[in-house]
Amino acid sequence: MSAMDPLIITCAPVGAEIRPEQTPHLPYTPQLLGETARAVREAGASILHVHCRNDDGTNTHSVERFGQAYEAIRAQSDLIVQFSTGGAIGMTPQERAAVLELRPEMATLTCGSVNFGDDIFENSFPIMRDLLKKMNEFGVRPELEIFDKGHLANARRLARERLLLFPQHVDFVLGVPGGLEATVQNLCDLVDDLPEGCTWSVAGIGKRQLPMAMAAIAMGGHVRVGLEDNLFYSRGRLARNDELVARVARLAVEAGRSIATPDRARKVLGLPMPQ
Ligand code: KMH
Ligand code: ZN
To answer: What is the number of the ligand 1 atom nearest to the C-alpha of 107?
Structure first.
């Protein structure tokens, strides 16, 4: 077996579903996002997956707020900044796409609709095509978010339409109520189904975050952790984002994997170095 790449740890520190009353550790303002960027970078993260909130904690996808968050993160870290284009349930596709004009290095592209609790997270082909056209226009690298098995087939269809060129970086989001369950077997099946040359990470939801991370470390994949996906460090004990990152970094080093810096992650993902 060839040597594994250093581990790329993505931190998803905010998300759209957790309310500030649920935890004192949610970085829901640009200033808190900047401080979190510094802390998770020190702990071993190389990518920050960004959602934004208003000062009262409600969701926003305003270009202005994302611009402030981007600046705050840049001021305190050299992390790869990845904007969410999934946003929150109820946002329009136009709102979700507008932040791409800020030209983050990366942005998510969820590759199909999926039940999301009692709601539907809508990602029809027209929505996906529009997001990809804008990413191509603004030079933003997609991360393909796969919540269900059929989403990889959707991504292949977008590649046949020449909106997407493989290989790409893929993130398996497993354990969303309504999506594919977070089991090692499902993860192996998805990895087997990846187009040649793709890199991948896994984001396990809730208490499946840690076992999925451990599987990815062992398999040569990469890992996403953070409060967006999981509020707890252990049963009943609320987590801070940096300690979720630090735990994965420790486990990886114990298992013989080094940790990617942001620039090393850029090389692995084929992203241009920032000027
Ligand atoms: N909040 C979910 C509805 C993404 O960031 O691109 C969508 C989501 C995916 O979080
Ligand atoms: Zn997200």
So the answer is: 6
